[in-house]
Fold:
Amino acid sequence: MRELIGTLLIGITLGSIYSLMALALVLVWRSTRVINFAQAGQAILTTYIAYEIVNRTGVFWLAILFAVVAGALLGAGIEYFLMRTLFRHADEGPVAAIAPVIATLGLLGIIRSVVGMIWGNDFRSIAPPVSTDGFVFNGQPLPFSMLNLMVIVGAAIIMIIFSFIFQKTDLGLSLRASAFQPEIARLAGIRVGPIRTIGWVFAGAAGAFAGILVTPNDILSPNSLDVLLVFGFVAAVIGGLESLPGSVIGGMVLGIGVALITNYISTVLVFPSVFIVLILSLIFRPNGLMGSKRVRSA
Amino acid sequence: MTSLLVSNLTVDHGAIRALSNVSFEVKQGEITAVIGANGAGKTTLLRTLSGLKAPSNGTVTWRERNILNKKPEDLVRRGISHVSEGKSVIPELSVHENLLIGGLWRRNRSDTNKAIAEAVELFPRLGERMDQSANTLSGGERQMLAIGRALVSRPKLLLLDEPSLGLAPLIIEQIFTAVQRMRTSLGMTVVLVEQNAASALAVADTGVILNLGELVAAGDARDLLADPALKSAYLGF
Structure:
């Protein structure tokens, strides 16, 4: 029982991080129909910035703030300078759909190399702001610590803020309208271009937040967030790639699944299982677990 | 008073000429029906007027100012709203949200709420379904919602692309009656694209007949309806 509770709590912690990364990918997918592989690079750069802030000031909260702001600015910059240029130059033929995705892969490589040049490739770590000792349950420690709780609460706060923005504000309505039907949104007077940039800004901030939340439990290196990108992507696909609730559900299913497999079966099986789930969900639930069914046409 | 003036408008889709040297004018407060078969260039004409499509040649002025090569979102701010082909609503949003997006560009929310109330007065069925997803609406209700969304932007020029497509005669009548009411009570100028020539010309003041991208005839709607040569060749009845 104690073991199961501990495993589930770890699963929810992992799920929170995957959800944030999934949300970052979904936001970009919805606004520009691009799968942004560079998200791992953006997040690694902002996490190194956070690392510097923690080293210099020792204030973790300040590091979060800097990382999130840097993530937002980086997202805006990539959309404005790279994506818009690509859409202008490669806008016809079969390459039009794939060029931006390939460009994000290239960008991922560039950012990682630059990070490697600045900080080197050896492992570093960010000192956790709160205790990493497991909570005590029935006299015995759980694998679940204050740091894990902080991750869950932090991710939940971000999700609540985003769902408020999406559901209750004019900006959120513009974001949704532009995502679903950009042409109709424009005919209604919405400036879809700047709204796209805002989608990348939110995505960059969410990805940066995921990076700084996951790293104190882990190591920091130029490649250390690649696994998070992959798992975030799988979570986004499980959730249907279109919505915030989908990202959270996808993230949680994956996080809890990974925790159960790691604890009860074998760590070796984590990666193959994740990819089997990815392929199965593409075959059987291509619109996601929550299955947004085909839109009624009449 | 001429409000929309189209001169020598030519539009290409790649190598295909969709509109060739088309000229006509629309007077303030009139309903103009644009009639023609599939491939006549009607939809291309509207998409060019609303900024969705770039022309190859020609000029178009609205109230004596150029509107070609402008962004649709800017033209909305100048009083031009386009209800595009095929019940242009966003199925993932609620009915209320679909109406609301027509007024987001405006700073003044109470003005938008007033415009939504007016749209609902014109199409009372929308009022009963405000919180439903637009996905749950019937075809006729969707068309009403699409027109209602355009009305929330308070257009002075309304471009309607085949509002009758796939709808039952009774619903078509309701929609055309609403278009006439909008013209009379709000003083709107309307360009109505239709394949349904007889009913469109019946509500219109003037008509423009297109065939394979070229203008065949333009003039008073009753004269066009009465012309036996046009009737058999282009109006299909």
